[in-house]
Q: What sequence folds into this?
């Protein structure tokens, strides 16, 4: 099988690497795991190993070349194999995107359909131009889906929609998820939905996370008897005070906000060569609105009591449903809770929401037979799964967090 | 009251509505009279004036020689002397023979004599293809007159409109070219019995929609409405604007509609080159609608060919419902 050798991504903020030298020559036999070439990142020279056994062929990278991550720089062939037909260097992706940046602006796509090559002119309808001018959007950054890449009103609105959500897909995320060269099934199409707006952002961020953060997940079951009792006691007084119903998610949010400060690596971000441990717990609550996912954020949750959390959560959820959240209220979380219990999901794993280091996946509360004394009793239990970025969170670290969360939920009176 | 309800429901043909307008205006105003080839005993080539000779007599329903120049000249002279002639030109193609009288006399006299005289003249004429009458009996020459200051051009599409617009044209003090479409003569619609006038220069939104504006007139209005009906099943909502009167043109209604939909398809039967569509496109591009356009202004019009005699080719030479459906669908979807 022909294997591609690519410019690897060895650093979270790395978009491109400088090629230093080949340690093998074209035509030489290499073994998987052998040092194959050296690259220079912002910080260091790094030796990269061969991804497979075979013959190094089609070497493209030369010393001094600056190459975007995931670009193919050579192939490894088995004896008798030939280079795939039409193998050429990928077009260079020019704009440099800042993964950790917080500018709220999406970077320019690699090719902008609306522009005329070489002329610098943008092909756009009058209404698209007017809207872009009114909204302060640079049309050169908008991809047109009309004939010959013409930018229509819908393209500008889609672009504005992306900006408003203020989450930024990056070049790296795009590069990390190249279009698969796999033929589509020969089947009748119901609909072709363009990958734009929030859906595109989710796709980019999840791809980025899945392909850069090695995930591990740990699960346990929590006895929710006391939490249920607490909820039954407080539901009415809290509703009188806040106008919102006390949910298990609110109790869980309060518990996480209380426990998390003692487990700083689960409330952290990997940023290049640094791990930032956050003092604030900005708690993201994954919420499904129509056909996409948004994450409203309870800021500084560590300093908020149950009543405040109930009030804020109710308000955020309501405005999420009616799409009246501001971009600032949907970004900047340091830890995310995703609860699918209302869909009868008993347990699941989740993808870490970058640049966070952990996400808590919450299942349904189920009456479960539990051994007690000599007998078996039914207890309401709930599955908690914490999924973490193993680059900065070890299994034991995550386990300690989860154990303390369990203890807290099983003795929830400390939360008030 | 009951009579009124029945009256509103009364359906007559486009042809009958034309006749009713003439008859009612001739009863109202003794200066109004009809002249043309075979308009008397024979009732006109299409039967529009059938029965009028009997009611009004040969002095007011005047048979003319086969000379369109004479018809137009006599009508212009009568109008100059204070009468209100309705001149019928049997086929619009023949109007070319009357051009000198209409363009150089009727259109100019009011202005060249300091407003001392006016020419309240209506030239009624059937236009358009679809009857297998070939290249010399099928033309739509309205664009020629749009380019002549001093002449109004009216192109009704329904029985209701044709009556009200003909009444308004007869009462208007300027020369009016009143274009009737042969294929519309037999179409039926609700028409009140009492006389009424529809002001010249007022377009009408015949169907509301938000995806695309179709500006049409004459026969292309019912075709556009049928296309709109078909496309609505695909979720494309056309707004159909009937220009009704090409000169003066109701720019406001057209521009407003395009501002609303952002897209416009102009449809007419006359050949595309140098046609009404080009003028409409320029009016739209030059208006505040420009900033609302989300696709190029498109024209769907007759091909630049003499109308063929062969029925298949004749049909292919001018826009049909399916052509409007295809063009509107493509334009509505562009970039969406």
A:
């Amino acid at each position: 099988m022909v294997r591609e050798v690519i410019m690897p991504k060895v650093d979270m903020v790395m978009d491109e690497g400088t090629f230093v030298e080949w340690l093998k020559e074209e035509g030489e036999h290499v073994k998987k795991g052998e040092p194959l070439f050296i690259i220079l990142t912002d910080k260091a020279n790094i030796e990269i190993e061969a991804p497979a056994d075979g013959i190094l062929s089609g070497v493209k990278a030369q010393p001094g070349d600056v190459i975007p991550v995931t670009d193919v720089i050579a192939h490894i062939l088995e004896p008798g194999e030939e280079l795939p037909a039409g193998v050429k260097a990928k077009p260079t992706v020019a704009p440099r995107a800042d993964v950790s940046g917080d500018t709220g602006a999406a970077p320019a796509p690699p090719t902008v359909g609306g522009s005329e090559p070489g002329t610098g002119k943008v092909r756009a309808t009058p209404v698209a131009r007017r809207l872009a001018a009114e909204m302060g959007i640079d049309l050169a950054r908008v991809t047109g889906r009309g004939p010959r890449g013409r930018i229509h009103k819908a393209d500008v609105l889609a672009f504005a929609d992306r900006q408003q959500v203020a989450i930024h897909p990056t070049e790296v995320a795009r590069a990390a998820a190249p279009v698969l060269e796999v033929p589509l099934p020969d089947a009748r199409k119901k609909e072709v939905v363009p990958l734009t707006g929030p859906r595109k952002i989710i796709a980019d961020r999840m791809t980025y996370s899945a392909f850069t953060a090695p995930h591990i997940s740990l699960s346990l079951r929590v006895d929710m008897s006391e939490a249920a009792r607490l909820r039954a006691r407080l539901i009415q007084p809290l509703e009188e005070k806040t106008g919102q119903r006390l949910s298990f998610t609110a109790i869980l949010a309060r518990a996480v906000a209380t426990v998390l400060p003692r487990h700083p690596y689960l409330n952290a971000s990997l940023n290049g060569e640094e791990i930032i441990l956050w003092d604030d717990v900005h708690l993201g609550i994954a919420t499904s609105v129509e056909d996409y996912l948004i994450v409203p954020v309870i800021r500084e949750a560590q300093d908020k009591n149950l009543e405040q959390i109930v009030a804020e959560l109710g308000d955020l959820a309501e405005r999420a449903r009616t799409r009246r959240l501001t971009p600032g209220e949907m970004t900047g979380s340091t830890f995310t809770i995703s609860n699918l219990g209302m869909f009868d999901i008993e347990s699941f794993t989740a993808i870490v929401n970058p640049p966070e280091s952990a996400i808590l996946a919450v299942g349904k509360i189920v009456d479960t037979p539990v051994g007690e004394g000599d007998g078996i009793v039914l207890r309401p239990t709930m599955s908690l799964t914490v999924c973490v970025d193993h680059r900065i969170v070890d299994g034991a670290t995550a386990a300690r967090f989860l154990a303390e969360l369990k203890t807290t939920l099983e003795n929830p009176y400390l939360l008030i | 009251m009951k009579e009124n309800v029945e009256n509103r429901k009364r359906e007559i043909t486009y042809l009958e509505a034309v006749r009713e307008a003439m008859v009612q205006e001739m009863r109202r105003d003794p200066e109004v009279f009809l002249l043309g080839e075979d308009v008397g005993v024979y009732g006109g080539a299409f039967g529009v004036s059938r029965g009028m000779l009997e009611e009004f007599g040969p002095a007011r329903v005047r048979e003319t020689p086969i000379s369109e120049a004479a018809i137009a000249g006599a009508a212009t002279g009568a109008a100059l002397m204070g009468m209100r002639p309705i001149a019928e030109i049997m086929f619009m193609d023949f109007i070319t023979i009357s051009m000198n009288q209409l363009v150089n006399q009727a259109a100019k006299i009011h202005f060249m004599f300091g407003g001392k005289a006016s020419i309240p003249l209506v030239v009624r004429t059937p236009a358009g293809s679809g009857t297998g009458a070939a290249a010399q009996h099928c033309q739509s020459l309205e664009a020629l007159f749009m380019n002549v200051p001093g002449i109004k051009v009216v192109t009704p599409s329904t029985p209701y409109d044709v009556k009200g617009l003909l009444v308004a044209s007869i009462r208007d003090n300027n020369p009016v070219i009143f274009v009737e479409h042969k294929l519309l003569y037999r179409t039926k619609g609700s028409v009140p019995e009492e006389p009424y006038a529809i002001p010249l220069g007022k377009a009408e939104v015949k169907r509301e929609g938000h995806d695309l504006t179709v500006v049409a007139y004459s026969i292309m209005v019912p075709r556009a409405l049928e296309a709109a009906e078909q496309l609505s099943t695909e979720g494309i909502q056309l707004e159909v604007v009937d220009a009704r009167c090409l000169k003066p043109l109701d720019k406001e209604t057209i521009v407003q509609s395009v501002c609303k939909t952002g897209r416009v398809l102009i449809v007419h039967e006359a050949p595309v080159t140098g046609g009404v569509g080009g003028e409409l496109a320029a009016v739209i591009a030059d208006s505040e609608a420009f900033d609302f356009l989300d696709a190029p202004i498109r024209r769907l019009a007759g091909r630049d060919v003499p109308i063929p005699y062969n029925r298949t080719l004749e049909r292919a030479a001018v826009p049909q419902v399916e052509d409007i459906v295809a063009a509107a669908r493509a334009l509505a979807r562009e970039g969406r």
Remarks:
- Chain B touches chain A through ten residues (CB under 8 Å).
- The mean pLDDT of chain B is 96.
- The first strand of chain B starts at residue 11 and ends at 13.
